[in-house]
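Hi team,

Below is the intake form for Secretory protein from Acidothermus cellulolyticus. Please confirm the fields before the structure is written into the shared record.

FORM ID: S-0412
PROTEIN: Secretory protein
ORGANISM: Acidothermus cellulolyticus
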Amino acid sequence: MVARIRQRRPRDAGFTILELLVVMIIISVLAAIAIPLFADRQNGGYEASEKADLHHVLTTIQSVMVDQPQSLTVNTTGASYTVKTDVDPAGVTGTLSAGNSLSVKPIPPIGVGTAYCLEVRNSHPSVSPWHAVVNPAANSQQLAVGACP
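The structure came back. Fields below:
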């Protein structure tokens, strides 16, 4: 009789409920570790796009300053921006990365030699904005996380 009980029938082949529960617990622990790491990598990508957009805007501003204008205006419309001067009223147009917006302080026009701050903010709620403070009189640029001071 014992031999008959120990003998498995073909229809009894498979996993027990305990084995399935152990596998589910292992998978849930691995997911709990991996999901936050993925979210941090995604936020890092958003911040990298903000920094890249700041670099592009600063490069555009430096290129139009070669003409030695007296004032500078940065207009933003959705995902694009235009840098205009009194020398070049048509200006130079650029495009921001998807989900990014640009703001300028003080409100343009900015006089030559006046310090200003450019801020790029991503639409994703958990991503910090990045800003660049430019002081032409001191010939300095500072890139930092957070809103413009």
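SUMMARY LINE: Residues 36 and 42 are 10 Å apart (CA to CA).

Thanks, M.
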